[in-house]
Amino acid sequence: METSITPHIICVGACYIDTILDVPHFPAEDDKLRATNLSKRRGGNGGNTLEVLAQLRNISKSIPNGPTRPDLNHLLPAKLSMMAVLPNPKLTASKMIKTSLQGVNLDQCVYRYDQDEAASSYIIRSKESGSRTIVNHNALPDMTVEEFIKAAQGFDSNDTKGNDGNYEWWHFEGRIPEVTAKCMRYIAKTRSEAMISVEVENPGRKGLKQLAEVAHVVFYSKSWAWAQGYNNPTNFLQKLDDQSRPLQFCTWGAEGAAALAFSRQEPDKKLLIKSQWSLPPSSKVVDTIGAGDTFMAGILFAYAANPTNINDSIHTRVALEFALELAGRKVIQEGFSGLGEAVRDSVKPLRS
């Protein structure tokens, strides 16, 4: 039997309250339009990813282990945590965020007791075009490097890989690059066995490229690759010359995603895979909000239990296909509820 492993995934980013307005078509400037529906839910990249991860963990626990691998219960994210700046914990918005993240530890979040509004997103979703226009408002002072270090030290040091085989996976949103870079370097220096992943999405945000240099796993967006002059994910990843990153992804919406992996054993050898998931017959796109966050949840779930699989070509393909199916099933439903159950059969190959 293999040494017991208890992974701990920590997402560092922002939690939002999303207000979604469904409209027949996007309104013209200075126009008046009646919305067909209004809904509210907790948003934010890291929060969305953790909500899906919690479902996958629960589903995976309910799947019996096969006779060849009776020890697979330890290959689960044993703990999920969020590090974000939140307003006064007594506010309804703060309670809503906490309720939406069942099974996720929020103890190391930074609370602004003098702030009475959560970060908010107002999303106008057009039925005519399928577009979603997002307006953000966030008056919460961002987390400082000092606050991050204090919060990180609040986690049990045993969560970092040591004699007991436990370890952490830190996933960062690409927010405020100059601060995030220092936080990532702190983790790399003080928790050398921890895995680090980062999102590189907004091409207008300076400094994101430097974040990729610190991470083990990088998630690039279509808009980022497009801004670099590439019209497909494989060409973009192929041109990346930094071989120090073991695994890099580039998502491309309905056209799927690509993965680029470098082998530690054979530094000159790289594996480039592209895949996509076809929607079930008669299904249609309903809600694309959080699809990218869902994809990242699939990848984190597939690798966090055993990051050595990052250099395994078979597992890379299985992980990519799983994450694409998970994201695909997300866009044909409203919100995230029930996603874990929807991919139950696809979780099994990850545990074999």
Automatic annotation (TrEMBL):
<dbReference type="InterPro" id="IPR011611">
    <property type="entry name" value="PfkB_dom"/>
</dbReference>
<dbReference type="GO" id="GO:0016301">
    <property type="term" value="F:kinase activity"/>
</dbReference>
<dbReference type="InterPro" id="IPR002173">
    <property type="entry name" value="Carboh/pur_kinase_PfkB_CS"/>
</dbReference>
<dbReference type="Pfam" id="PF00294">
    <property type="entry name" value="PfkB"/>
</dbReference>
<keyword id="KW-0808">Transferase</keyword>
<keyword id="KW-0418">Kinase</keyword>
<protein>
    <submittedName>
        <fullName>PAB-dependent poly(A)-specific ribonuclease subunit</fullName>
    </submittedName>
</protein>
<dbReference type="InterPro" id="IPR029056">
    <property type="entry name" value="Ribokinase-like"/>
</dbReference>
<feature type="domain" description="Carbohydrate kinase PfkB">
    <location>
        <begin position="8"/>
        <end position="311"/>
    </location>
</feature>
<dbReference type="InterPro" id="IPR052562">
    <property type="entry name" value="Ketohexokinase-related"/>
</dbReference>
